[in-house]
Amino acid sequence: MYIFAGDQLLCARLRPANQDAAAGSVEEVSHIVKQLRERWPEVRIVLRADSGFCREDLMSWCESKHVDYLFGLARNKRLRRIIGAEMHQAQMLHQTSGNAARVFAEFSYQTRKSWSCARRVVAKAEYLDKGENSRFVVTSLNDEQWTAQDLYEKFYCARGEMENRIKE
Question: Is 60 exceeded by the pLDDT of residue 151?
Answer without folding.
Answer: yes
